[in-house]
Design brief:
Blueprint: E1 5-7, E2 13-15, H1 16-25, E3 45-46, H2 48-60, H3 78-88, H4 94-107, H5 109-117, H6 120-128, H7 144-158
Antiparallel strand pairs: 1-2, 1-3
Helix pairs in contact: 3-4, 4-5, 4-7, 6-7
Length: about 160
């Protein structure tokens, strides 16, 4: 049963998890139904109407052991990641931004791909490699080793994509 229906550019609706596996893990660039070519950066549009219909059906059939699934959290967007990366350059916002990035990376592979396309890997590598002296200044009690460790943990989590 679809839990997070999304529509791709061909107009066909799929469950988010399955179409992401098809396009990203299996590296397919065609629609499984229409065989039309997909754009390089595939846009997944949530099909809210279908999701609500499925959730209503689950609620109506609860007496038959069907459980209603919660509304899925929307994936992170590239502009959100870019904003966090900019904030992470400020010593005052760095730890908070890095913690948020770590949380986002741990949620799912789609977020990790979004982080990659926004340039997060290069930024995290620069923190780990100590390429930017301003990033490592001690600020509000946070030492550079804590910053490096946090950046490294995000990088490690990121590399564990399916």
């Amino acid at each position: 049963m679809m839990k997070d229906p999304v529509t791709i550019s061909t107009g066909i609706t799929y469950d988010r998890e399955n179409i992401e596996k098809w396009t990203f893990s299996a590296k397919n660039n065609i629609c499984p139904v229409t065989k039309q070519s997909l754009i390089t950066s595939i846009e997944l549009t949530p099909n809210v109407t279908l999701r609500r219909l499925i959730q209503s059906w689950c609620t109506i059939n609860a007496s038959h052991g069907i459980e209603r699934f919660p509304t899925p959290k929307p994936p992170v967007s590239k502009p959100q990641i870019i904003k966090l990366l900019k904030e992470a350059k400020s010593p005052k916002m760095q730890m908070k931004s890095l913690k948020t990035l770590r949380s986002i990376a741990s949620e799912n592979d789609a977020n990790k791909r979004c982080m990659e396309s926004a340039g997060a890997m290069e930024f995290l590598a620069s923190i780990i490699n100590n390429n930017s002296s301003e990033v490592f200044e001690e600020e509000e009690g946070f030492m550079s080793t804590k910053t490096k460790h946090l950046a490294s943990s995000i990088n490690s989590n990121y590399l564990k994509m399916d």
